[in-house]
Glyoxalase family protein (Saliterribacillus persicus), 320 residues
Amino acid sequence: MELKGLHHVSAITAVAKDNVRFYTEILGMRLVKKTVNQDDTSMYHLFYADEAGNPGTDLTFFEIKQAARFYQGNNSISFSGLRVKNDKALNYWLDRFKEYGVAHEPIKDLMGRKVIFFKDDEGQRLMLISDEFNNGVESGTPWEHSPVPADVGITGLGPVRLTVPNPGPTSEILTEVLGFRFAGTYPAYEDGQPDIQVYETGEGGTGAEVHVEHRTDLEKERPGRGSVHHVAFRVKDEAELEAWRDKVRKRRLPNSGLVDRYYFKSLYFREPNGILFELATDGPGFATDENLDQLGESLALPPFLEENREEIEANLTPIK
């Protein structure tokens, strides 16, 4: 068994309509699914991705209207990466970020790859990473109706960074349970902190990396709007997911068991530093209940929630 790479990252927003504006109108991603959190149907669950909503391209958000601002710290997913085709694309994004007033840093080097760190309006920590020299997991296809030209558009998820006070147990789960490989290190951005460790899975590359940052100077993060809830990794199918469940159980890691999310099936568990991991199947996908050319245009509910549609819609603020 081998995880194929990143599946999706799920974060928190306080205002769905503003979130949609930023990720579709400024970042040019496609809203491929407008649905609800299946564990709390009073909140939206929004999925932004490439043209077809392929696994490995999804950045998702739960709308928690009462969410306070987050306070950055340890035991967290401290940034999420987004891929672009090449170094030239990053120059386009510098200009676009300036045009729209998006908080960002200059282009930097990260293990021989060009990156731009930036934030959305709620302080969500993000990174654009160039695939100029990427030979790993294949990227997605930018949405043809995006306001961003296709040749510089976002093509999928890049590396995620975990910030932890004790990296040993996290690294052990990544390598001994999930089968990640150690792929190198790079210097921390804060003086006096240990190098950041890089792990990869599957075909490797920007779509299959987890970076582990050891911080000795931070308190535990207080989550809220702008923070990340969990990261999910790609599993081929349900049969393989069952095998992963058995492997997680053998390590006596508390877990959810298999959960049917309708668009994919999932398994959840926390690694020793408290970060929530999800393993999710590649299919059946977002076109299960909507035509490909109409993804995200209306509120989609899985069959087991459909009978409650009227009540669910009454508790949501419409997004146009």
The chain has a mean pLDDT of 97. Helices lie at 16-26, 87-100, 167-177, 238-250, 303-306, 309-314.
